[in-house]
């Protein structure tokens, strides 16, 4: 089964590769430290947990804390501690990238670090290792980035002009919905600038969002993305929504206002998705920036995000009652609470036509995590109510490795089902192809392109 899916094109409908990396034909992957260590919270959180300061790893600070600027020293610390990744999915991805993408022939250690660094520098400098060249080498059929609602999308515009329309933006409005955040006034100003209108009240706020969604669609967007701690949904009256928004503009919104407004906006975004066809993604259950001191020194995304218990059945009921059987609407859900897979998410997706389950995410994007996910959801939801796989990566060079882990894990799981007599052997290869390719294309409504047959 694996031989039948190993060479399929990669469908990457959700991730965080910066579009600037691909928009500039002259861009490079940077130094080995910039490629593998500095931007990757999967990597530096493990090193930090074992006492390696983020300053020593070159992670940029926002409070002026001096950090290591010699990338060879950063790489040395990484290689000296490479053994910490044994048995982890990060270790699998790193090893696969080093060997299969960059041709590294020895294990990273303190002794081999500088030889590997020299080899990687030579490889990265070659024209076949530019980001655009690797996009072709990786056989990426579609790659969706994640972009703020206020993004001018200038990088995507250049990609389109250069014929790379299979790199598509994704509309993420979290920053303009967080009305109690200190950055919210600036985010609203940026939204107004991007939309070409003054956002002075709730009505103009909604019109600006609708305008930005249309701009994203013109650049090829397939989906929206919403990161929330709790998947609470609630329809406010127009008067309530306007009143809360006005309080926020006056700097008077409190935590209750923020929670109710966020719940209401999920309903609004679902309504917009039903109207404009953008698939709605919901990533739920991360306690962001758990470590206060680290947040103060290094800002968000510093490896201190921790999963939370989540309740879906009651929280999603208003949204699913309104749009769950609307054929125009699609909702893909992701969770960091594994206990909800079989208890809530699979039964919900097994009933509501609009709901699809995203793959095991973040902490569970691993061989064992994938197996637990499949065991928990397929019996109730089947496989056609799953969204296949997306790599959700910032590390561009890890894309083939992450998809390969999923393809191996799903084939292994299917083989076990065949051996136990739960899946017919003649059906398993087709199911493997669906897991690897077909489910993601249908879940995200990826149009057929010339890239599908490369």
Overview of this protein structure:
With 454 residues, the chain is of the alpha/beta class. It has 2 domains: 2-27 and 130-453, TIM Barrel (Alpha-Beta Barrel); 29-128, uronate isomerase, domain 2, chain A (Orthogonal Bundle). It has 20 helices and 11 strands. It has helices at residues 2-5, 19-23, 32-36, 41-49, 71-80, 89-101, 113-124, 131-137, 154-161, 174-177, 184-195, 202-218, 238-249, 255-276, 292-298, 317-323, 340-349, 367-381, 399-419, 428-443; strands at residues 10-12, 140-144, 147-148, 167-168, 171-172, 223-228, 279-284, 286-287, 306-307, 331-335, 355-357. Strand 10 (331-335), helix 17 and strand 11 form a beta-alpha-beta unit. Helix 18 packs across helix 19 (399-419) and helix 19 packs across helix 20. The chain is globular. The mean pLDDT is 96.
CATH superfamily of the largest domain: Metal-dependent hydrolases
Outline, from the CA principal axes? globular
> Per CATH, which architecture of the largest domain?
Alpha-Beta Barrel
- The main sheet orders its strands as 6-7-10-11
The residue ranges in which pLDDT falls below 50 over 5 or more consecutive positions are none
Got a strand count?
11
- Total domain modules: 2
Percent in strands = 5-15%
Number of helices: 20
Rg from alpha-carbon coordinates: 22 Å
And the CATH topology of the largest domain? TIM Barrel
Structural class based on helices, strands and sheet pairing = alpha/beta
First-to-last CA distance: 21 Å
Q: Quickly name the level 1 CATH class of the largest domain.
A: Alpha Beta
